[in-house]
Amino acid sequence: MSAALPPFPKPQETDGPTELLQLRTGTDEDEPCLRADAARNRARLLEAAARLVAEHGAAGVTMEAVATAASVGKGTVFRRFGDRTGLLMALLDHSEKKFQAALLSGPPPLGPGAPPVERLRAFGCAMLRRSIDELELQLAAEPSAERRYTAAPRRFLRGHVALLLRQAVPDGDSELLSHTLMAYLDAALVHHLTEQCGVPPARLRAGWQDLVARVTRTEHPA
Amino acid sequence: MSAALPPFPKPQETDGPTELLQLRTGTDEDEPCLRADAARNRARLLEAAARLVAEHGAAGVTMEAVATAASVGKGTVFRRFGDRTGLLMALLDHSEKKFQAALLSGPPPLGPGAPPVERLRAFGCAMLRRSIDELELQLAAEPSAERRYTAAPRRFLRGHVALLLRQAVPDGDSELLSHTLMAYLDAALVHHLTEQCGVPPARLRAGWQDLVARVTRTEHPA
């Protein structure tokens, strides 16, 4: 099987999508007086856009479709996100923040309160689910080779894995091992395996459980 | 530490560097009557260029420098490789073929004749050495996310690792595990760790031995 990726509007600036994303985050944080109903409105638009991505892929997300799905005027979507690139970047940022919150303060085993190996297992399965749902968005926003490992969202997730590995594998090089575990969850690899090789998601999840067991020298879960 | 990558002349065609590379290979194979002295001359130019990359990085490879290093006229270098991009692509192709030959028919443990775990260990250390020596070339030739896992040189190397894993880990998913081992050796990751994080090559090699031991559930070598 081979699947062409849908076109994605790249930002015109020399800065990559991630810088744009951080810029956007910064802008929002600089607006403490953003009215509560505007914030709710923004969240509602992003949830509608996320549903469209899940149902139709990134190609299905247009300003018009989001406006219709959220029952607002098209002008509202343009005012909030500027253009379609702005909307897609805001969407990735929104998803990233929800996921980070789940890791930091959500219920176990994804959040705190479970043994580190169980948290690693849950982390990988959640990442694979995200990668499969948001594959096109993540691929389109992939930074260049020189910046791939320094982009902020990736640094946070890799640091989370390294933290769990320090607890689970005190005798290992948790920094290097964390890169290895993150590589299994890389969007470009997940795309290759699912879209180009036809590997079913269940096999990817089983492979993750197996990898965590080998890396931590533990037994497979029952 | 942070290192900017030197500029690299990208080919103008829509085909990526790897297609160019395959094209070049094909062209050479279509010239069985390439005279022996011309073939020797080409090999001598490539060896000179490889020395320049090792000593000065990809930025140090100019048509003039290669001509001087190989004691030939500049015209000879232009006639053989067309332009600097052609030279750099031929260089990567040359290095790839030498490495493939070492895996297929060189002395053990890189070549056949050693136990699979030992061959995996040797493979990773040789790949890390290559990555560090040719980092700029490999990064510059990195295919886009959609083609990264289907490019021919990568497919060959990944298949080699999967073959060794089938013997070393008969109970594992050798296809998925082979992607994980290859990811540790990825040029972009090696660049990040060595150039951006200051990780010394010896630590990368030790991390590879540790990873192979964990994945194959064997002990570290003495």
From TrEMBL, chains A, B:
Entry keyword set: DNA-binding
Name of the molecule in the record: TetR family transcriptional regulator
Naturally occurring in which organism (per UniProt): Streptomyces pactum
Keyword Protein biosynthesis attached: no
DNA-binding region per Swiss-Prot/TrEMBL record: 62-81
A GO MF term: DNA-binding transcription factor activity
One Pfam family, short name: TetR_N
Residue span, HTH tetR-type domain: 39-99
Keyword DNA-binding: yes
